[in-house]
């Protein structure tokens, strides 16, 4: 449920343009009048930005954000005003500022300090929650341990039972959220840095999709069998590892290509013209939500993997022309 809400909230603020950043340490020390996407080990925002979507080990926001903030990481800290809404997920989440609209927070520990003022509603789900601030709308908390010395227009608290199963389920849920956000950011980075190859594969997704599904299924099964056979020879273990890594990478990228193609299809159906990264985000949200449908979601995931993998296989010869030394036809 949290992932569905997160993905639906992610789209509205994504408009106009895009600034990206990646690396072990990513710092924004000069104002950015644009939407910012970043992924890295340590991320800090020390100058005003328009909106922010980040994922990393440590996320620190020390400067005002005009629009929305979507952040995920081991530690997430918001120390500056946010004009829109915030969607935060992490092991430890600290909110220490004013929020113009709604707040959605999920993690191990969530703390709202005495400097926190949320202009509308707040939904919090965590093992431990502490509220020392003010929520002017409804505050909904689901937690095993809740400390409340702050104020709220209306408080709704549900105590979760602490069991090993619930702990494991909570960890897996958080891991799924972080993985999905990471996949989304990976897709955006691919579109930003390798738009040509990405678009070539996406075009293959839309061309004879049934053929691509069958080709992808054959490629995945063939790759698995080849990996096993090579590994059994012992001398072929290094090659088997390379084949296995290539297979995993191809399957990882497969749903990203399908997401972009699906977004373009949906936008065309509604007569909308968007930018490439907006097509991707639209399709990514729809596809991720589809994966969460009981039973049917597994079928959709399998089809998306085969379709994207098959499209990648068909596009590889054409992709060679986009790199130095490539000689294949365009």
Provide a brief overview of the structure.
With 330 residues, the protein is of the alpha/beta class. It has helices at 2-10, 164-193, 195-206, 209-232, 237-269, 276-291, 296-319, and strands at 19-28, 32-45, 49-61, 69-78, 86-95, 98-99, 103-112, 117-118, 122-131, 134-148, 151-159.
Secondary-structure-derived class? alpha/beta
Question: How big a fraction of the residues is strand?
Answer: 25-35%
Query: What's the helix count?
Result: 7
N-to-C SSE series? Answer: HEEEEEEEEEEEHHHHHH
Furnish the topology, listing elements before pairings.
Layout: H1 2-10, E1 19-28, E2 32-45, E3 49-61, E4 69-78, E5 86-95, E6 98-99, E7 103-112, E8 117-118, E9 122-131, E10 134-148, E11 151-159, H2 164-193, H3 195-206, H4 209-232, H5 237-269, H6 276-291, H7 296-319
Parallel strand pairs: 1-2, 2-3, 3-4, 4-5, 5-7, 6-8, 7-9, 8-10, 9-10, 10-11
Structural account:
This protein has helices spanning 2-10, 164-193, 195-206, 209-232, 237-269, 276-291, 296-319, and strands at 19-28, 32-45, 49-61, 69-78, 86-95, 98-99, 103-112, 117-118, 122-131, 134-148, 151-159. It is α/β, with parallel strands linked by helices. The protein has two domains: 2-165, no CATH class; 195-322, no CATH class. Strands 1, 2, 3, 4, 5, 6, 7, 8, 9, 10 and 11 form an eleven-stranded parallel sheet that branches. The chain is globular, with a radius of gyration of 22 Å. The model is unreliable at 1-17 and 326-330 (pLDDT under 50).
């Amino acid at each position: 449920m949290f992932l569905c809400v997160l993905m639906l909230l992610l789209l509205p603020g994504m408009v106009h343009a895009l600034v990206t950043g990646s690396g072990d340490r990513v710092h924004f020390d000069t104002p950015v009048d644009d939407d910012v996407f970043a992924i890295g080990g340590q991320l800090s925002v020390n100058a005003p930005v328009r909106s922010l979507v980040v994922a990393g080990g440590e996320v620190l926001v020390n400067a005002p954000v005009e629009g929305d903030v979507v952040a995920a990481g081991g530690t997430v800290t918001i120390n500056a005003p946010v004009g829109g809404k915030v969607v935060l997920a992490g092991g430890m989440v600290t909110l220490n500022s004013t929020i113009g609209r709604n707040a959605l927070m999920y993690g191990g520990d969530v703390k709202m300090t005495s400097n926190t003022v949320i202009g509308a509603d707040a939904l919090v789900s965590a093992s431990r929650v502490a509220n020392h601030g003010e929520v002017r709308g409804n505050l909904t908390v689901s937690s095993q341990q809740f400390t409340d010395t702050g104020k709220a227009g209306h408080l709704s608290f549900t105590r979760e039972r602490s069991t090993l199963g619930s702990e494991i389920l909570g960890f897996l849920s958080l891991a799924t959220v972080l993985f999905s956000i990471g996949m989304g950011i990976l897709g955006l980075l691919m579109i930003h840095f390798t738009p040509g190859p990405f678009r070539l594969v996406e075009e293959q997704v839309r061309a004879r999709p049934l053929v691509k599904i069958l080709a992808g299924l054959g490629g995945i099964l063939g790759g698995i069998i080849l990996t096993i056979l090579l590994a059994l020879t012992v001398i072929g273990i290094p090659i088997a590892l390379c084949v296995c890594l290539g297979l995993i990478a191809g399957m990882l990228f497969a749903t990203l290509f399908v997401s972009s193609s699906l977004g373009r299809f949906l936008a065309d159906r509604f007569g909308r013209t968007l930018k490439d990264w907006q097509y991707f985000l639209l399709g990514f949200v729809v596809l991720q939500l589809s994966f969460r449908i009981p039973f049917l979601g597994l079928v959709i995931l399998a089809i998306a993997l085969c379709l994207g993998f098959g499209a990648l296989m068909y596009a590889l010869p054409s992709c060679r022309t986009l790199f130095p030394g490539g000689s294949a036809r365009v």
